[in-house]
């Protein structure tokens, strides 16, 4: 039985089949997600190699690394061959990846397009299981003064306090706003409520010579821009 278990360890594979060797010789870009995950866990179980086990884990989240990052240590430990140490290693590695992306996006200091706004905000809201509403406050050169969470709600929606938005804009000396909220459901289509709150904020801001430049709906992999679609 021990020999059978050992045969599924990465170190017993030929060099061409070992993910670690493949990464070293050919570069990280050529490895599949399953191979990268296999490097983290090192070995599989009595019936599966590390790569096979990794494929099973990824299949459980539709091969979505963002969804994999949401699994808790106890949830990862439900897979045969994943103990506490391996589960913690997976969680830590995915968290490092997330923080790396966040650090790159935080360099955005000026909003020149909806894409800039998306890259600024997506690390904060794209992966959330609940809905959040954020405001980006800009000066007259469209430079970011402040980015703030306005409200947090359930998956069906959030509460938006127009007075609070404009009060903070005046205190910051902002002349431009970018609104954004996430849709955990994955749909990019704005709801009637989304359009109503956008118009309400736009009208109230105009009375104070503050412009609402855009409203983004953010999902895990994409976004919808009110301005780009001509409905702002």
Describe, in short, the structure shown.
The protein has 232 residues and is of the alpha+beta class. It has helices spanning 2-6, 19-26, 33-41, 50-59, 65-68, 73-76, 84-105, 114-125, 162-172, 192-206, and strands at 132-138, 144-152, 176-182, 211-218, 223-225.
Secondary-structure map:
Layout: H1 2-6, H2 19-26, H3 33-41, H4 50-59, H5 65-68, H6 73-76, H7 84-105, H8 114-125, E1 132-138, E2 144-152, H9 162-172, E3 176-182, H10 192-206, E4 211-218, E5 223-225
Parallel strand pairs: 3-4
Antiparallel strand pairs: 1-2, 1-3, 4-5
Helix pairs in contact: 3-4, 7-8
Please tell me about this protein's structure.
The chain has helices at 2-6, 19-26, 33-41, 50-59, 65-68, 73-76, 84-105, 114-125, 162-172, 192-206, and strands at residues 132-138, 144-152, 176-182, 211-218, 223-225. The model is unreliable at 1-7 (pLDDT under 50). It is an alpha+beta fold and 232 residues long. Strand 3 (176-182), helix 10 and strand 4 (211-218) form a beta-alpha-beta unit. It has a 5-stranded mixed β-sheet, sandwiched between helices. The longest helix is centred in the middle third of the chain and has 22 residues, at 84-105.
What proportion of the residues is helical, as a percent range?
40-55%
**Structure class:** alpha+beta
Mean pLDDT, all residues: 85
Q: What order do the SSEs take from the amino end to the carboxyl end, as H and E?
A: HHHHHHHHEEHEHEE
Rg (CA only): 23 Å
DSSP strand count: 5
Low-pLDDT residue intervals, each spanning 5 or more residues:
1-7
Strand portion: 5-15%
Largest sheet: 5 strands, mixed
């Amino acid at each position: 039985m021990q020999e059978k278990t050992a045969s599924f360890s990465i170190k017993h594979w030929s060099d061409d089949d070992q993910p670690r060797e493949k990464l070293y010789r050919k570069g990280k870009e050529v490895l599949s997600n399953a191979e990268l995950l296999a490097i983290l866990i090192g070995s599989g179980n009595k019936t599966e190699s590390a790569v096979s086990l990794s494929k099973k884990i990824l299949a459980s989240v539709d091969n979505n690394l963002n969804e994999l990052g949401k699994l808790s240590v106890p949830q990862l430990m439900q897979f045969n061959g994943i103990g506490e140490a391996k589960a913690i290693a997976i969680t830590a590695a995915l968290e490092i990846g997330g923080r790396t992306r966040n650090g790159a996006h935080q360099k955005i200091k000026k909003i020149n397009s909806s894409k800039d706004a998306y890259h600024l905000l997506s690390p904060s809201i794209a992966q959330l299981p609940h809905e959040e509403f954020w405001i980006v406050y800009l000066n007259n050169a469209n430079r970011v003064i402040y980015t703030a969470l306005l409200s947090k709600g359930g998956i069906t929606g959030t509460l938006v306090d127009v007075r609070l938005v404009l009060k903070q804009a005046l205190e910051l000396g902002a002349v431009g706003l970018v609104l954004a909220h996430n849709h955990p459901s994955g749909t990019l289509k704005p709801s009637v409520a989304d359009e109503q709150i956008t118009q309400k904020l736009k009208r109230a801001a105009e009375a104070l010579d503050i412009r609402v430049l855009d409203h983004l709906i953010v999902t895990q992999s994409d976004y919808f821009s009110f301005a780009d679609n001509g409905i702002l």
